[in-house]
Amino acid sequence: MSTSVIALGTSRVGYETKGYFRSLDAVFFTFLFPVIMLAIFTAAFSGTGDIVPAPGAEGVSFGRYFLPGMLAAGLLLSGVQNLAVDIATEKGDGTLKRLGGTPLSPVSYFLGKMGQVFVTGTLQAALLLVVASVAFGIELPTDPGSWLTFAWVFVLGITTSALLGIALSALPRSGKSATAVVIPIVLVLQFISGVYLQFSQLPEWMQNVASLFPLKWMAQGMRAALLPEDFAALEQNGTWDLGWVAIWLVVWLVVGLVISRLTFRWIRRDA
Known about the structure:
This protein is mainly α and 271 residues long. It contains ten helices and no strands.
């Protein structure tokens, strides 16, 4: 990869980030949505008592239990939903066709989009953690090991989500249909992957289906980082399975990269 390609991609990160925050619907549905959902969950279930993984084990509040899932959902929304809709819209309105006539290469374009996702995803996660701690009194880990786990799950998860978002942008036939195609996929994944429902209480077949997709593993990795060790007993195999978290995210990262390179075009196929 040449220096000029990297330089062009880096220069687009600021442009893409500014464009993101100028779009109020994108900010609400991909940036603020996890924060709002955490507030609703914390307020709605504040009087129901703690979630306890086993008799005699340390319990946590509903807000603390669902915080990791909200963080994982934020990665999915920032990467998959945001980029899939955004790129499909740019194809539909002719933006990509115009960019195709400039020195900008697809790789530089990808780097700009992925950089924007990394910046906004980092800001979103930081906001979510601050709101959880300050506004709702949710206890966060204090040991470095937990934050190291959080860091690598976050970086791997946001990169995978960004590449899958680029790949999924090829599915909608037009910019107008992008939200109708992408949002249901993202919403279903959130419900079956332990974001809004306790994963251990889902039917086994649904857990098995969710295990084929990256969001389940991102949520599990976040729970491993932010919840007490006793909560590993509630996972599908009774352990955090961090090795499998890494493997599945890398697999989906490669899938997203390959599909992105095979399907990305500056213009629509039917144009």
